[in-house]
Amino acid sequence: MQLSLVLSAVLLAFSVPSLAEQCPALLQGELQKLRSEERIDLCAAFAGKPLVVVNTASFCGFTPQFKGLETLYQRYKDQGLQVLGVPSDDFRQEADSNEETAKVCYVNYGVTFAMSETQSVTGHDAVPLFKELAAQSQAPRWNFSKYVIDAQGKVVASFPSSTTPDDPALLAAVERAIASQR
């Protein structure tokens, strides 16, 4: 009896892909959720879903894009789109506290999509998510760089800060990412 259980366990271990195989490299890791005790398990939250990742800042000329990002999220969320905002002070325009960042996002702009606490998004200190984004595309050159990721965890397009969330090219990339679920 014990031998059959051991054999069953061994066979199961070889027949089920490991989490690392199921989860694309881009989504392997966690980020602390903004103003929460919770962590965002990137794989659990976003694997198999189209995703837009944006490095954000509370005191940037592009900060009003939060409104457009929320509109984008509301427009496509029923089709599976997820949006992840990652505040960063790499360009010296983020609030000094997560409380203040949360106020800008949630109170000033009504953000309902996922937001992490402040992270490094460039260079050697970048979080793994942004290191992989840079490997597949390029590192952010400024706040509000946008990355559109398909359901397989591949960057299908990236856009600079100046590209607004309602830009036709960005919307076309989002629609391609949504189509990748099928």
Model description:
With 182 residues, the chain is of the alpha/beta class. The termini are far apart. The strands form two sheets. A five-stranded mixed β-sheet has the order 5-4-3-6-7, with helices on one face. A two-stranded antiparallel sheet has the order 1-2. The protein has one domain: 3-Layer(aba) Sandwich (Glutaredoxin), CATH 3.40.30.10.
Query: Topology as H/E string?
Result: HHEEHEHEHEHEEH
Judging by the overall fold, what is the CATH architecture? Answer: 3-Layer(aba) Sandwich
Largest sheet: 5 strands, mixed
How does the helix and strand content classify structurally? alpha/beta
Annotate the secondary structure layout.
Elements: H1 2-15, H2 19-22, E1 30-32, E2 39-41, H3 42-46, E3 51-56, H4 65-76, E4 82-87, H5 98-108, E5 114-115, H6 128-136, E6 146-149, E7 155-159, H7 168-179
Parallel strand pairs: 3-4, 4-5
Antiparallel strand pairs: 1-2, 3-6, 6-7
